[in-house]
Amino acid sequence: MTHVSGRHFLQIPGPSPVPDRVLRAMSAQVIDHRSPEFADLGFKALSSIKSIFKTEHDVIIFPASGTGAWEAALSNVLSEGDHVLMYETGHFATLWKKMAEKLGIQAEFIVGDWRGGADADQIEQRLRADTEKKIKAVCVVHNETSTGSVSPIADVRRALDAVDHPALLMVDTISGLGSVDFRFDEWGVDVAVSGSQKGLMLPPGISFNAVSKRALDVSKTGGMRRSYWDWGDMVGINGKGYFPYTPATNMLYGMVEAIEMMHEEGLQTIFDRHQRHAAATRNAVRAWGLEVLCSRQGHESGVLTAVLMPEGHSADNFRAEALKHYNISLGSGLSKVADKVFRIGHLGDINDLTLIGALSGVEMALSKAGVPHEKGGVAVAMQYLQDTPAPGIDA
Ligand SMILES: *Cc1c(COP(=O)(O)O)cnc(C)c1O
């Protein structure tokens, strides 16, 4: 092994870099999870995460990756044979559908082109045709991490209401939460799924289900066979600040610290910062003469930007060159767009110079990999950042 100087640029759309303050908070000694001292931590963790989901309802914390929380969401409110409507925004929507099918759920896709978020009008049309109300849930990915597009969840709620459809609204905001505005209560979401390692600036390891009163009621008498994922076992003892089994104590230390930092910066400031960095990135991409994968205006993600490679050039080869020469990790294209796109993560604990550093690595690596492009994308991004007030700093 040879030592590489300087810091690694972790510019994948999750895990995102963990702030030093959070790492330090996590380095505290582990404590007895049945002790009175733990209840303070438990209460703090369980109440503070609600402020990020913008909910007064229960948020359940699982020691699991986001995939576990997906399974928890499905298994608590749906039974084998139930019909659900899902929207093909990209790779993660496809994986969630495959999971539903493995669990015996009949999942129907509204087919998408991976270039935008969910289309609420199409969802409304499909629900209108479901006169027998067979569809038990509508499942949508908020921020599709494989493509860099955001689905308008408030519009999806309106689609359900417009046809007075009783289906539960279930949302994967694993990579959206904490980076893109999400309003569980206001948008009438029934179950939201999230994870620690994206907008929340934590390491991977814990994940969440926010649960509406209605979804919780459904789970009490319905859902499929489940044990580890059962919400019922959690909510009772969570009310006392504890968990039914050993929680990820040090992740909770980190989470409480990360949420404190988020409120110090201000949630709206964080969302605006992400939008501004995403806009600067898109300007750079277009100046390079490359194409942004998300082509639906207004759906562009603040979390990441997926970039289409010119025909005949390998995105994976380009990423390998970027890593080798500039010590930067960029996201790969997943499944349908494997080797065709690369993804620039601009989420979490970053600032203008982090972004410019990352974009500089991309621009130089395009040359190293022999990818045809125009020079000067970074200069265009710099100009945009100079000209656009930085939320929380200039305004
Ligand atoms: C990361 C991600 C997942 C998967 O989460 P894991 O923590 O890797 O299990 C699911 N959906 C979306 C939108 C994601 O970004």
UniProtKB/TrEMBL annotation:
What are the required cofactors?
Answer: pyridoxal 5'-phosphate
Looking up InterPro entries in the UniProt record yields: Aminotrans_V_dom, PyrdxlP-dep_Trfase, PyrdxlP-dep_Trfase_major, PyrdxlP-dep_Trfase_small, SP_NH2Trfase/AEP_transaminase
- Where do the TM regions start and end? none
PANTHER family reported in the protein's UniProt record: ALANINE--GLYOXYLATE AMINOTRANSFERASE (PTHR21152:SF40), AMINOTRANSFERASE CLASS V (PTHR21152)
Quote the protein name from its UniProt record: Aminotransferase class V-fold PLP-dependent enzyme
| Stretches assigned to the Aminotransferase class V domain | 9-334
Reading the lineage from the top rank, the first entry is Bacteria
Output one GO MF annotation.
Answer: alanine-glyoxylate transaminase activity
Query: What family is this?
Result: Belongs to the class-V pyridoxal-phosphate-dependent aminotransferase family.
Q: Where does substrate bind?
A: 343
UniProt KW keywords: Aminotransferase, Pyridoxal phosphate, Transferase
* Family matches, as Gene3D superfamilies: Aspartate Aminotransferase, domain 1 (3.90.1150.10), Type I PLP-dependent aspartate aminotransferase-like (Major domain) (3.40.640.10)
**One annotated GO biological process:** glycine biosynthetic process, by transamination of glyoxylate
Q: Which residues carry this modification: N6-(pyridoxal phosphate)lysine?
A: 198
UniProt keyword Secreted present: no
